């Protein structure tokens, strides 16, 4: 096995900036076990009438899914710094929304922010559901 250059190590180190939640082999909700089928159905059927704790879990899932997708794409794109810069803007916004959701007082307030998280993901080519 060849040794990694310092440039390679720097690129790999940037990958650690991407994940703040957990690394998942397959981040899709059905495989990551972050959400159950029933919870996903509740989220889509009840919407802003969901339990506040469920909305917080959905928020965590969306962030986890986006981070893991971004990491995979960063690696596939051979550690492209332009891709990373573009995606980090998305992840920063998602993290801010996730933090706001964790402090939300009502399901309606949290639901609006979860919808913003989904919209942000979709704008960046990530579809968590």
Short recap of the structure:
This protein has 129 residues and is mainly α. It has helices at 6-18, 29-32, 37-46, 52-76, 81-102, 107-123. The protein has a domain at 53-129.
Strand fraction: under 5%
Count of helices? 6
Uncertain runs? none
DSSP E strands, number? 0
Q: Distance N terminus to C terminus?
A: 39 Å
Sheet of most strands: none
Order of helices and strands: HHHHHH
Radius of gyration: 16 Å
Q: Tell me, rounded to a whole number, the average pLDDT.
A: 92
What structural class results from the helix and strand content?
Answer: mainly alpha
Gross morphology is: elongated
Helix content: over 70%
Structure, described:
By secondary structure, this protein is an all-alpha fold. It has a domain at 53-129. Helix content is 71%, strand content 0%. The relative contact order is 0.16.
Q: Which terms summarize this structure?
A:
71% helix; 129 residues; mainly alpha; elongated; 6 helices
Helices, strands, pairings?
Layout (H helix, E strand, L loop, with lengths): L5 H13 L10 H4 L4 H10 L5 H25 L4 H22 L4 H17 L6
Helix pairs in contact: 4-5, 4-6, 5-6
């Amino acid at each position: 096995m060849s040794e990694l250059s310092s440039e390679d190590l720097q690129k790999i180190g940037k990958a650690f900036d991407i994940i703040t939640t957990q690394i998942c082999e397959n981040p899709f909700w059905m495989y990551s076990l972050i959400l159950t089928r029933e919870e996903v159905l509740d989220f889509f059927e009840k919407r802003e009438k969901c339990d506040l704790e469920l909305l917080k879990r959905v928020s965590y899932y969306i962030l986890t899914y986006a981070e893991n997708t971004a990491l995979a794409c960063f690696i596939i794109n051979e550690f492209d710094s332009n891709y990373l810069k573009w995606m980090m803007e998305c992840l920063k916004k998602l993290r801010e929304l996730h933090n706001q959701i964790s402090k939300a007082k009502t399901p309606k307030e949290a639901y609006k922010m979860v919808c913003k998280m989904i919209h942000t993901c979709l704008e960046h080519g990530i579809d968590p559901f």
